[in-house]
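Team,

Forwarding the record for the chain on the shared tracking sheet. I've put the sequence and predicted structure together so nobody has to dig through attachments.
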Amino acid sequence: MSEAMTFTPALSSGFDRAKKLSRIMAVLFTIGFWVTLVGTTLVIAILFIPQTPPGHEDVVGLNDISVSLDGLSFGQRVWVLLAIEMVGLPVVFLMHHTRRVFGHFARGEVFVLPVIGHVRRASVWLIVSFFANIAGQIMLRATGLMPPGQSHGTAWPLIIGVVTFIAAYVMAEAQRIAADNAEIV
């Protein structure tokens, strides 16, 4: 059974282009990961931004939702911070697993368990990000910090997350079948 875990099929020479593109994608997702991680860390500064004249401090969250910080109490700023973190943290984990997937692809590792695991986890975080966005908007609306009609969202993260989750199971099954066939030969 340990052979199934280390089974790596021989890749065609045509896969070289995919490896190069995967390196580029791994770099882009790594940059996205670090930018998102730094952004979700720096957003803690919301709690410490001094009061300024009206119209000078806005926090722009995901999906073009902005909340004015003018005149907000410390407690309201905590709600804004929690809403933004709730939306941002799943994206950090999504970026991490996606960069790992493309890193494996760049090394020619396709149907191996670590890749399949990262694809599964990336899909779960994509699904979580869909629901986190809804929860974050509900938090802002419930506290009166987001005006009516400003909410934005799309079902695509949910749809793509579910499709990717299913694809990970298909990859796992293909890996298992290939490993079984390799044992026979």
